Amino acid sequence: MPIEKRWVVKPQGNPEAVAAMAAALGIAPVLANLLVQRGIDTVEKARKFFNPHLSDLHDPFLMKDMDRAVERVERAVREHEKIMVYGDYDVDGTTAVALVYKFLRHIGHKNLMFYIPDRYTEGYGISIKGIDHAVRKGATLIIALDCGIKAMEKVVYAKSRGVDFIICDHHLPAGEIPAAVAVLDAKRADCSYPFDELSGCGVGFKLVQAYAQKNRIPFSEIEPLLDLLVVSIASDIVPLTGENRILAHYGLSRLNNNPSKGLLSIIKICGLDKHSITIDDIVFKIGPRINAAGRMRMDENDENAAPSGGHAAVNLLIEGDEVQAEEFGSVIDAFNQDRKCIDRSVTQEAHDFIERNPEMKRLKSTVIYNPRWMKGIVGIVASRLIETYYRPTVVLTMSNGFVTGSARSVPGFDLYQAVESCADLLENFGGHMYAAGMTMRPENVEEFTRRFNAYVERNIDPEMLLPQVEIDSDLLFSEITPQFRRDLNRFQPFGPGNAAPVFVTYGASCHGEAKLVGMDCEHLRMDLMQRQKPNTTIQTIAFQQPTHYEWVRSGRPVDVCYQIVENHYRGTVTTQLRIKDIKPVLK
After folding, report:
1. Handedness of CA 146, 150, 152, 153 (dihedral sign)
2. pTM value?
């Protein structure tokens, strides 16, 4: 049985302010209320929100060390030094590497290579193996993207081998900053850059923007790179506010109208070439395919090519030939198919283990360990377990003689602090409030499990263990007019910090037939009609919610909360409600 959700209606805006905003902008009061809820409380802010402009991007030289970074790249370009572009194996890292690599290639720098560490043999971040590879290949400058902010010893080692580092990261620094030529990270305590929520790829883009600005390269020459940047922004779940909103807006435009050949091949594979691509499409379709390459274990390591799964992803993203890009795209899609099979199998194993151990089900957290599971999918499995058990979750496996794992949290609970409380048991760890990774010796697993569970037991608010749906406002079906939908679309792109609005409608009932659809009849599709407005019916889909089928089918009333989406089917676009939750009306 699914866990019952709490519905929490957000505080509504001041009625007078909402009415004034609605009148000034010519939009429905419900939409003006959404603006006020998001802190957009003046007409000027609203107009800027609805019309993002590239001229509102911040000067990249406001970022600490940017001048030094640009000077070092200029010197490398001028003196034809070999540059290694180095990045993490996830979507943010591989898009960042592709973006910087493509820019350097565009300005004519040919002495260039890229490197993605192997998840299994090197792990996250800067590796000694990667630095040694740079030395063997004659590289004298490494531009590290989406990693490196804690690589103090690695940077010193590289310097001793004659290799300089420029670090472009967006993770929280430790107390010490690496002694690189330049460390670009808006989260540095001594950095006054106005926006500190860029993705790793976003920091790489600011470096490119700064180089272009100083060397009088028109912005139009770097704008084509924004399709890569929006893929990173969506996939890395950074807030879609400030600069990220502007960059994502223009990146989506590029992705829809003139994407690079590599991304076009994925778009076609996903079946997204026939309709407008959204942030959700990137999160659920494009991003996972790029991510899958870095998750999968490679059979061999060719020392000359320095391959890894992520290496294959970058090859795709930098490819300029459409036929070759389609071949690379097929390889990436095959990685994704393999990944899906493996994570389904492991998730089922984890479920079965928990169900056989009732004492685990009584806890307020889950720590589960199996040395046979693939390292690359434990984060996905942790997320899947939260969908069922809804509590902080750690999934551990064995890799290279150490136990390694990923943790995921529920809204409101600081997972990083829970992991940090066990720091003395860990070889290393990192992450943030809702996701973390860690490595430990096998003999510490039992004590880590005990202490992590005890920390959660002491510190979690019981309400955090109940999933909740945050509702922006109530709405009548009759208010969902074509004009309302057009105005609502202007709020996009949706994501963290600018979530797709959730509305609630009370007292709706099925009009016509309700159907269970999907391979396992796991989704509920129905046309709903509101009792107060019997002439207004609307299509709806409730994914993974078959529970209320009989109730709805009988015509009895329900309250529903939902997002308003466009449904594309065989060239026709219709309005559809994506149901978040259903509550039968019992009175």
Report:
1. negative
2. 0.87
